[in-house]
């Protein structure tokens, strides 16, 4: 069984290293980890971004599940590319699992970036648009996708010292994947 | 034919009004517009967010296409919920169309929020993570999803005065949908 390893990890200076570490952890649980191709394509090629897209899509089509790193990235929500991939895999009926290394909820995170006011029972951001206030970690579509098509978002009790390299919650997702996918293999 | 109308429009103070306006424009082009349920559910209900998720997913399953408002929202990228829905619809093989009312590219937008440095031929953000530098409007997964499973992202030449209410680029998406979907109807 193959698991697509989505996340902004591809943007880390040591992306290849963390990709390899995640793949090793997959192997420990009996899975093949597929790490996005962002770092395996010659970035100078005129169609580099298209090559990456096609490669990542082919890997997603080939995978049985996704484990998405939904740790907030450049704003209060998860990385857009990772969220796209979560949706794509849910649309294809694959097992969707995700984790965030930031245990704060969405409202608390928006407040880190802008002033949030309470008006007529709604929370309103600096842009004048409402702030979703369901006590969830991110936009409800992401969170309930996990609830209904996989397992609830995995988060640590406390924010780890190294937000981008701590793999405890990733490993917890692998354990869930092992429970969900391996009985099917044995049938 | 039905089109799912994704976007952070649901968070606007006049969300119901803009939803109605978009649905009218859909009708003008021979389509039924399906607007997300975020504003049609009693927010005080204990399972309000789950009701919204289930309702939105059912509408997406029922729709033939999506038009996603990918105008940047609370950061340099599009709204996470909208991006999730774009991915979901692509995964289900539906026609995916999208627009952004901000014509700036991703690198320029990241620079509005943080300092970006050039290191060893890569752009690095304040968080130490690389900034995608393909001259695209957002993360490559979103942009090439549109290119390969729909039509290129529609953007205005200039940022409109009212970023959240200007519907010119939305209307351009409807025209593309009419070209792509209505010939099939006639077959």
UniProtKB/TrEMBL annotation, chains A, B:
It comes from the Bacteria. GO terms for biological process: deoxyribonucleoside monophosphate catabolic process. GO terms for molecular function: 5-hydroxymethyl-dUMP N-hydrolase activity. Pfam families: Nuc_deoxyrib_tr. InterPro entries: 2'-dNMP_N-hydrolase (IPR051239), Nucleoside_deoxyribTrfase (IPR007710). PANTHER family: 2'-DEOXYNUCLEOSIDE 5'-PHOSPHATE N-HYDROLASE 1. This is Nucleoside 2-deoxyribosyltransferase. It comes from Rhodopseudomonas palustris (strain ATCC BAA-98 / CGA009).
